[in-house]
Amino acid sequence: MQNLENSLSKDIDSIEQSRSQGWDWYLVAGSLGILAIALFLHFWQLGTIPYPVFDESLFGQYAKEYLEGNPTWEGHPPLGKYFIMLGILLFGQNEIGFRFWDASFGSILPLLVIGLVYRLTAKRNFALLAGLFVFSDGLFLVESRLALLNIFLVSFGLVSQMFLVSGLAHQGKLRTLLLCFAGLMLGAAASVKWNGLGFSLLVFLLLLLVGAIAKFFPQQLSKLGVLAEITKLHWWQYPLCFVVMPIAFYLIQWLPLFILNPGVPSGENIWQSISAFPHFLVAIHQHILWWHSTDIVTSIDPAHPAHPYCSSAISWAVLARPVGYYFQNSNAYFAVIQGLGNPLLWWFSTLAIVGITLGSIVPKLQKSTNIGSNNYLLLGYFANYVPWLIVKRCLFLYHYMSASIFSFIALAWIVYQLLEQKGKLRYLGYGIIVTVVISQLFFLPLWLGLPILPKDFYQRIWFMPDSWSGFNWI
């Protein structure tokens, strides 16, 4: 066991040394280049499409109500609306004000992915590829150019993972501090929407997996890289960082709504208000549960769907049913915002998840040098995807966003390995990158709401209703 710990310590030190030497012009320039183009795409003509679009009519209104002092009880926790409210305070009740923070979060999202992958593996090209693929997606671009919530959820989830991996790579008080920040960000993800709990499920499964490997396959522990440091945490760090901190953040973010709640009489002393807070929490969560179980959102009858863009969770990985956010027919041109992922990126990414899954369970396909990052990607993907398969309500493609991040990273890992080959396989890697970028450019008009001729619009709608069983892009 002592030899194993020494080997693991050497591996961690080697990774840390690689990181300390890795922030050179190549990684920095690549990251800044992606950020610059992302900022342009997210803020260019941000105010051209008039507010409100799709669910902006809901979330923007909720944010305005906080400013007016009479917030509505609705179907999600309030954290995301606070950011929209802050944009309104900064820029006014206009398109830029409503959408500013979504666009900001969406612009830096590829950098969060780059940071997470680099902290996890210390592989610069792998990290840059992961950031490039996230940047190339259309659904993330659409969601972050409108006053919606999902981009906040995914961003906080990724930040939680960055703090987690960074905490495991450090020692002492700094480790505890970083892991506490990871817990706070787990709470923040769930404070946007409850499905942000997928990132907490990821951490829970990761703790179980590493613990099981340490107990039953200790010889494999050194192959987990920095994730093996989970076995060295003090017992009290687990409940403090991964239970107390997320719950604390989640409870505190309700305070503005509680203070503005008309059911809490003004003038009461502080202790009476504190005693009223648990009753408020019970009532608001009963309301959210009712909201998610009402017939308005639960109908899954194909003949009478709750919404025309409802889709089954099993269809998301193949991009069968996108969401139409906006459509305008003016002067023989269409202006369309289609919640459509980058098709080639999504299909390649799904194949990557299948390939890595097979590589993890089929002995002949296993790679002994990457079980840590591979298992982490699979846990991240399935923790954010599988729970949706048992949900009995109307669902939408954007519910797949948290899982899709891990599938994009999985594709980046496959492409990175192809590029490391010396034979013809490396050209397959370059081919995947080129086709993903070309697909991004081809579909940009449908993501940005640019004027487009009807014939050009239909060229991009590859699946008309009933043309392919289960697929419908209209």
UniProtKB/TrEMBL annotation:
Predominant localisation class: membrane
Subcellular localization, as worded in the UniProt entry: Cell membrane; Endomembrane system
Enzyme class: transferase
Membrane topology: Multi-pass membrane protein
Domain Protein O-mannosyl-transferase C-terminal four TM: 296-463
EC number(s) from the headed UniProt entry: 2.4.1.-
Chain ranges of the ArnT-like N-terminal domain: 91-254
Keywords, ordered alphabetically: Cell membrane, Glycosyltransferase, Membrane, Transferase, Transmembrane, Transmembrane helix
Pathway(s) annotated for this protein in UniProt: Protein modification; protein glycosylation
Record field: transmembrane: 25-44, 100-118, 125-142, 148-169, 176-192, 198-217, 238-259, 344-362, 374-391, 397-416, 428-448
Lineage: superkingdom: Bacteria
InterPro entries, sorted: ArnT-like_N, PMT-like, PMT_4TMC
Family: Belongs to the glycosyltransferase 39 family.
Function summary: Protein O-mannosyltransferase that catalyzes the transfer of a single mannose residue from a polyprenol phospho-mannosyl lipidic donor to the hydroxyl group of selected serine and threonine residues in acceptor proteins.
Name of the protein this chain belongs to: Polyprenol-phosphate-mannose--protein mannosyltransferase
